[in-house]
């Protein structure tokens, strides 16, 4: 780490603090040459490998943008989309990889979106999973209904 004041090539770490749930480390450093102190911020980068092979940094804003399109006209707030993007990022980071395929990001969006709004989920899934026919929609709806029925308790006297 070069000193920003005298450009000396060495510095000593005086203090380190973990922030933002362990994804950021702030360090106070001191230059042994000029004695001045400065701070650095270290973050763990997460890159997305696109279908074209290009890589780009993971972006919560892109997750929100895609989910917002699926939620157009639905009763979903910006705060809910922010939480969805955070859930997606946490899910991707839990894979423990510095680079993930764009397909993995799409898969990570599906489940939180399904919990947020089923219509938006179907819209997103229809594009992401390339639904070709009405049967694809019917199969997705049948799966949602089956999951919903499995979660509902049996009426009293029926168990």
From TrEMBL:
Cofactor: Zn(2+)
ZnF segments: unnamed: 3-34
Keyword Zinc-finger: yes
Function: Negatively regulates transcription of bacterial ribonucleotide reductase nrd genes and operons by binding to NrdR-boxes.
Family that this chain belongs to: Belongs to the NrdR family.
PANTHER family: TRANSCRIPTIONAL REPRESSOR NRDR
Full protein name: Transcriptional repressor NrdR
